[in-house]
Amino acid sequence: xxxxxxxxxxxxxxxxxxxxxxxxxxxxxxxxxxxxxxxxxxxxxxxxxxxxxxxxxxxxxxxxxxxxxxxxxxxxxxxxxxxxxxxxxxxxxxxxxxxxxxxxxxxxxxxxxxxxxxxxxxxxxxxxxxxxxxxxxxxxxxxxxxxxxxxxxxxxxxxxxxxxxxxxxxxxxxxxxxxxxxxxxxxxxxxxxxxxxxxxxxxxxxxxxxxxxxxxxxxxxxxxxxxxxxxxxxxxxxxxxxxxxx
Length: 246
What we know:
The chain has 246 residues and is of the alpha/beta class. The chain is 34% helix and 27% strand. The chain has helices at 21-29, 89-99, 119-140, 154-161, 177-185, 205-213, 228-243; strands at 3-5, 15-19, 37-41, 46-55, 59-69, 77-83, 104-109, 147-148, 152-153, 166-170, 192-197, 216-219.
């Protein structure tokens, strides 16, 4: 069943309205008609089973047949602080991080980041990245569309993360797997966790020290060296497995 997101402002008591690019997709790509079934999310954790009532030029009206609180979200909010990678790697990271349950993704400019974004490029990138997040949320049946935050400096990202219940930072000099398992297990009662991932070349030693001072726990991802686009997804996978409810 096709799935779409609509703003909460377009949801009424017994019906909802789809506007924007999805109208063209429903009409001309999916070629749907009145009476067809559609899955809708308001992006705030509520799902709706709907039937198309009318199809107009600029909007589609649907009747709400049933609604329920989304059951696919993790009980913990995972914040991925991703050091800006080269090329289009960020697009892959965002897509897969959304599928794995990330609540928010924060691009971070660290001392070893090679990518330079001017203001115009950053605005375009953020728009593109948010579209990818929405696509990933649709594909994976998410109840929310994770927000892609504007690019932050490392110090700004640490300050932002201080409000979270816990922080971890994969680090090649971290103690072994036994200690990492202990740290991950200790996060069970947390409601929000920040994951700091370095860019190509990793974090500078001073950045790691600053993160630890701010409360981040260094963890290992094993003996193999992972690319930046792999490390965050590996960490999200571990946490998803750890926190996923029955």
